[in-house]
Amino acid sequence: MQTLHLDNPICLVFPAQIRFLVLIILCLYLAGCDGGLAPPPPAEFGFSGTVYFAPGSWPPTDSLVSIMIFASKIYPLDSATTVSGLFSDPPQIFVYPSMSESLRPFFTDSLSYVFPLRSGTYKYIGVVQQISSDVLHSSIRVFRVVGFYKNPANLAQPGNVIVNDTSQVKDINIQVDFRNPPPQPF
Amino acid sequence: MRGSVTDTKTQELLTGVNVILRGTIRGTVTDIHGKYQLNEIPAGTYDAAFSLVGYTADTVYKISIQPDTELHLDEHLVQAPIQEDQVVVTANRREQSLREIPVSVSTVSSKMIADHVSVTLDDALRYVPGVNMMQDQVNIRGSSGYSRGIGSRVLILVDGLPYITGDTGEIPWETIPMFQIDRIEVVKGAGSALYGSSALGGVINVITKEINEIPEVRFRLFSGIYDKPAYAEWDWSDKTRLNTGGFISYSNRIGPFGYLLSVSRMVDDSYRENDVYHRWGLYSKFNYIFSQYQSATLTANIQWRSHGNFFWWKSLNDVIRPADSQLGGEVHSTRGNLSFAYKEIVSDRLFYTLKAIYFGNFWQDNIYDRINNTAASHTTQVDAQATYETSPMNVVTGGVVANYDRIYTNIFGSHPGAGAGFYVQDELTFLHSVKLTAGIRYDWQRVWKEIFASPAASSPSQLNPKMGLVFSPGPTTTLRASYGEGFRYPSMSEFFTSVNTGLSQISIVPNDSLKPERSASFEIGGSQWLSDRIVLDLALFQNDFYDLIEAGVNPQFEIQFKNVTRARIRGFEFGIKADMFNRLLTADINYTYIYPEDLSDHTILKFRPRHLFYASVTAQYGLLQTELGYRYVSRVEAIDENLVRFAPIVDGDVRVPCSVLDAGITYNLTHLGLPLAVGLNIKNLTNYSYVELLGNLAPVRTIYVSVESAW
Description:
The structure holds two protein chains of two kinds. By secondary structure, chain A is α+β, with helices and mostly antiparallel strands. Chain A is about 15% helix and about 30% strand. Chain A contains three helices and eleven strands. In chain A, the strands form four sheets. Chain A has a four-stranded antiparallel sheet with strand order 3-2-6-7. Chain A starts with 9 loop residues before the first helix and ends in a 10-residue tail after the last strand. By secondary structure, chain B is mainly β. The model of chain B has no long low-confidence stretch (mean pLDDT about 85). Chain B has one domain: Maltoporin, Chain A (Beta Barrel).
């Protein structure tokens, strides 16, 4: 039987068994803890609109993996800022539906969309085409911008879209012509 | 007769030791210096019993008291690390060792209440195995669901007398004198065969302290600081929010007359908006000893309270703000009881008690200083009980009860109610290791729309049996089995409520054809000592419920109470108590599994969690005590979606498991010559956010400092 020296400080008196018991309780606590209640994420109204595709411009299926809408708080972009914008915390570039999903269906004249986003100013909104599924080893450009939301006052420049927490911004329409893409930002 | 009681091993003077002259009504407890005194004992020969939770009870036989002579008797008690010989009174209406009882019983001592800084009784019950609280609604092994203060399927007794309001049939937790509690006994399973209505899922008996023989002043002060909620989005107040309170009492005995006077005050700013709470309380107890065998006790208790309305949150975005409809609402109440008890020991074999209680409950709720609802209820009950030991192996207990209730309200109407009952129980011991108990109780109860007008609301009479068996094959093993039935008469509010809730556009309509809820409990279990330091306890139980009353929404969007549910709750409860390293550390770990099935539609019964896990570890080092407690209550699987939808409680269906860690440290300064104990407690140490009740965030992390003294 273990002898206890009661004149020692508590921390020295507590043998391994006691610490083990405390450890059990803490483990049980952690096991049962799922983080508890939390406020719901802020409502994301974002923006909505229609993507119009130039008639007869859809590329062949072997170069059409997916199409996505992007919204960037950064403009202009280059390769480095695109990567950091996508993977920073919080992100500065958002993709809809997601990096692994595509807008559907293909080969249509237009697609309506709703892009839920947190409030902020989005300086560059457009449509990106994924050409190949081999993102890492492809020798060709995998992603290319095929259309963007234009500044009504200067059609050569992207238009700013200000998203708030109270309503959805509508009519963010984008023209896409796969045969005549705009200048690439990266 | 005077002396002191010490710990055999440490020679520490022991406070709170019960000293009783057996066969008489005389007794006292040791003071903070471990001393006791019993005055004016007639000459004779007595057996003096000494007992204290945590120590093995001891009896000094045949002490001789001579005329006009003082006897000095010092006693030494041996530590019994686990409460092996603890005496309880609730299970069979008489004092018995826990090991003689065929049902599961848990106890909470006054020390545990003080160590946890439990401000109200419901808070003190949160670590009791098999019990879980839905805010202020008590649930024993799944017996209760969501009733929001209407009706209780657990019976609360104070010193053996029912303590439930006459109008809503709820438990007035805040009026129970927490600072005067000696212990709480929780009996699990149906108990109507001895206690009548409301003992559907169990009985909780609050036993108050006896008056000391020598003058004593006691006080306890506490102050808690609420931390900020876990998320900044929920924060709503820049003010430091406190929960502060305390009491002071004085007791003395002058010859045969003993008295105790106490005043208490509590102010709780709350961590939530419109949830402020103020309370004054007066408590007094008077005792007169007619002779060695006769005594009478009168207790008066009154509480004044005002508090804000917080029925449910505004939304998950605003969990500590109430819904807009509750803003500006507050409730003022005056509640109190006057109770009387007379006890006489007629012979070595026969004693009887006469008890009576009046409980008055007056409240009104205001909305921005405009009186909205008012209610007054008066409840009176008398109880006469005799216990006769026909032989050393057979004890018979029987009694009669009667009650009269009267309510005057603008929401339930004005109604009288009356009832009567009688019960008898026989406990037979044979072969020195088997104890068989059988009992039955008959109850008659009526509630009228007008004074004794016909017809009465539907309340069929009830006959409830009980049976129990305890078998002790050896000194370290106890096996038990029991069967009992229970019932609950509908409260007047369930019969007669007719009101617009004021919280929504929904009306509540009366239903005077309600029938009593009924239950049948079956339990088998046992306890096994693995050594003199470790004891295991296992119980398997099945509780059947019939005609459970629930508030439903009818096609006219009206709420009405109806007998709708037939349910069965099965489960098991496992507990281990361990004492290690010469009591340096004690651990108490309990798990309860409940499978609550609604047999009406074969779904999970609403508002019942499946898993309860409570663990506490206490380390005692000299006069320093530290405690770590953990509570886990699994997420309630099924709720009443209609309630959430129609109330409406925005985000009311959001719920998570309860997973709470509490910690405390207490230091006793008596060795410095100061009769003081100081404590630091942190409740909800990790500031975990959870709900016990729909739309109600449970308390955030709160840090309490407390001081207690007696001299």
